[in-house]
Amino acid sequence: MANLDEPLRKVLGDKTAKVLEKGLDLHTVGDLLHHYPRRYAHRGELTQLSSLEDGEHVTVMAEVVKVQGRTLTRNPGYVLEITVTDGTGLLQLSFFGRKGSYRPEKELAPGTRGLFAGKISTYRPRSGRAVRQLAHPQYKVVHEKGAAEQAAQEWADEIIPIYPSTKALPIETIGTSVGTVLDQLSLPADPMPEELLRRRDLIGLRAAYEGIHRPRGWDELGRARKRLKWDEAFVIQVALAQRRRAAAALPATPRPPSFGGVQAEFDARLPFELTEGQRQVGDEIAADLALEHPMHRLLQGDVGAGKTVVALRAMLQVVDGGGQAALLAPTEVLAQQHHRSITGMLGDLAQAGQIGGAENATRVALLTGSQGAKARKEALLDAASGAAGIVVGTHALLQESVQFADLGLVVVDEQHRFGVEQRDALREKTAGGRPHVLVMTATPIPRTVAMTVFGDLETSVLGQLPAGRSQIQTHVVPPEKPAFLARTWERIKEEAAKGRQIYIVCPRIGEQEGDEGDAIASDDPQAGEGRRSPLGIMEVLPKLEELLAGLRIGVLHGKLHPDEKDAVMRRFTGRELDVLLATTVIEVGVDVPNATVMVIMDADRFGVSQLHQLRGRVGRGSLQGLCLLVTDAEPGSKARERLDAVASTTDGFRLSRLDLEQRREGDVLGAAQAGRTSSLRLLTLQRDEDVIRDAREEATALVEADPDLSEHPGLATVLASLLDEDRADFLEKT
Ligand code: ADP
Ligand code: MG
C-alpha cells in the first residue's frame, strides 16, 4: 500500500522512478497522481493534425499511409520517412539511421494505427512544400486484435489518456506507472468535509483519481475533473480566507478624517472637480482608515482614471491623524515622478520647516535604491523622525535600514509588480499595530484573478475617466502598407510643430550584443527560433535622428543612472524634448499631459496589457491622443489579431480578458507558477469563475467556523503542503 508521500522508487522500482524524476520532476506517489492527462483520445478517433503547432510536444493518434526510405548523401546516410494521416492532414515521421536498422520499418505498415509522440517541427525541402514532421518520435502501435472480443463500439469508445510527456519517455511509461500506483494507493480520510461534498455534488477523492487517470466513460471523467478542480480552488480560498481573517484581527491605529487639516486644505485647492467615482472610493477609504483594524484595499482604475489623487487624499488623512504614509512604486522613474507630482500638487503644503511653508504643512521624502548617500541619509532621517509625512520610494523602502516614526498607511502603486510578501515587509515596519494598506492597479483585473491572486483584499473600482478626456485613436502600421510608416514620421513632425510631444517605444535597449536590458521576453507569445531580435532603441536612434532631423530626441531606459533618468524625464516634462525614445520603463504611470503621440515599434512583441498601458501615456489631457502600433507581423497572424484588438477598443477590462485568454495561467499567477509544481492544474481563471466563487464562499464560511482548521485535520495537512511548496508560486508575483 502506498500513500501520497511514498517515493515512487518504492512503488515503481528504481529504473522507472528515475525516468519520471529526471524527465518530469515527479518524485512521490502524489506527484504522479497529480500529473493529469493533458488530453484524452478515442481509440476510434484520430487527432486533428492541422491543430498542431510548431515546437509543441504532442502525442497524436494517426494512421500510417506511406512508408518510404531515402538515401542521404550526408550522414547518417539514410532516412525512413513514414507519412501518417488523420484523414485530412498529413504528418511525416522521420527516422534517421542506417538502412534496415529501424524497427518502425517492420511495425508501421500502411494501415496501422498508432500513438506518435514528439516535438512538431517544420521541415523545408529545397524544392517543394514545407512538411510538418516529428523527428524520431516515440510511438506505440494501437493493436486491433482486441476488437474481436469486445463489442466494436465499446472498443472504439475506449478513452486513452494522453499525458504531458518529454522526449525521453516511452509513451506508455506514465500510464502504466499511474496504473500501478492507483492499484496500491492508500488514501487518508477525504480532506473535504463530507457534507460539503454532498452539498456541492462532488465525488470522493479516490474515485476522482481513478476517474481522471482511467476513466471508463466521459461522465466519469467529468465528475473526476469537477472534484479535483474544486480542490484546487478551495484550498487556495481557505488560505486566503485565513489570511483575511488574521489580517482583520490585527490592531491598527484609526486615522479618522479631521477638519481643517492638510487634506481639507488640499481639497480646497484642487484645480479640478473630483469625479463621482473618486469621491465614492475616497469615502470608502476614509471610512476604512477610521477603523481599528488595518484596511486592505485594492483600487482598480483604468489608465488615466486618476488614482493618484485618491491615494494622495488618503495619505493626507493619515498625516492629519499624526501618522506617515509610504508610497511604493515599481520603478525608479515612477517613484521620481510621483515625488515630483505630489510635491507639485501640494505646493507650500509640502514645505514644512521651510520659509513659505504653509501652517500645517508636511514634507515629502524620496527614497530610491541608487540615490546619492547624502540625499538618502536625509530621506532616512526624515522618515525616521516623522518630519516627512509622505515617503515615496521603490523597493528600497522595504530594506531594514528604513524606519518610520509612525507608519500609518502603505500605498502600493501598480500592484502587479509586487508580491504579497513584499506588502508584508512594509507592514512589519509599524511597531505595535499594522499600517493600513491601499494597493492600486491600472491593469483591470478580471474577477477571477481578483478573487485568487488578490483574494486577501477588498476591492474598489474607479469606473469612469475624468471628464474632458478625448478618445485615443489607435492604428496598426503594418508591413504591407509602407506608406503608413512614412506617414508616421510625418505625423510626428506635425505634432512636434504644434508644440506637442511624442513617445517612441522599442522592446529593447540593444546597446550591445546580447544585452537584454528592459527586454520583454515573457510577454512575447510568438517568441521562438527564426525571428529577428526585437528592435532596440540604440539601433533605432541614428535612424530617427535622420528621419526626424531638427526634433529634440531624449533617450530613457532602465540601465541609465537614476539621476540621468530623472534629468531626461524633467526635460521631457519641461518640454525641452520633443521626442522621448524609451523602453517600457515608461509603461506605468508616467504622466505628461502634453504628450499626444505614442509610437510603439515592434508592437507585436508586447502583451495586450502592456500595449494598453503604453497607450495610456497619451491622451491624458484634453488633447486628442494618437497611438501607432508599428509591426512587421503578417495579416491574419495571431500577433496581428492581438494588435487589431488593441486598436479596436480602449476598454481596459475587455483587453485584460483578452490578455488572460492568451496567456497561460502561469503567466497570470507569476512566472514561478509556470514551473514545476503549479498548484493549478485543472482550474483555469478564464473559465472557472463559478467554481472559484463557490469555493470562496464555502472557504470563508469554513474558516469563520473553524479558523485554525482543528476540526478539519485532513484539510490542514493539504493546505500546509501547498503553502510549503507553492507559497512563492501563488502568493508572490514578482
Ligand atoms: P492613473 O489612474 O493612471 O494613475 P493619474 O492619477 O496619473 O491616473 O491621473 C491622470 C491625470 O488626470 C493626472 O494628470 C491627474 O492630475 C488628472 N486628474 C485626476 N483626477 C482628475 C479629475 N477629477 N479631473 C480632471 N483631471 C484629473
Ligand atoms: Mg498612476
TrEMBL record:
Residues 498-661 form the Helicase C-terminal domain. The keyword Iron does not apply. PROSITE patterns: HELICASE_ATP_BIND_1 (PS51192), HELICASE_CTER (PS51194). Residues 288-462 form the Helicase ATP-binding domain. Gene3D superfamilies: Nucleic acid-binding proteins (2.40.50.140), P-loop containing nucleotide triphosphate hydrolases (3.40.50.300). It comes from the Bacteria. One of its GO terms (molecular function) is hydrolase activity. Pfam families: DEAD (PF00270), Helicase_C (PF00271), RecG_dom3_C (PF19833), RecG_wedge (PF17191). One of its GO terms (biological process) is DNA repair. Residues 514-533 are annotated as: Disordered. Keywords: ATP-binding, DNA damage, DNA repair, DNA-binding, Helicase, Hydrolase, Nucleotide-binding. This is Probable DNA 3'-5' helicase RecG. It comes from Actinomadura spongiicola. The lineage of its organism: Bacteria, Bacillati, Actinomycetota, Actinomycetes, Streptosporangiales.
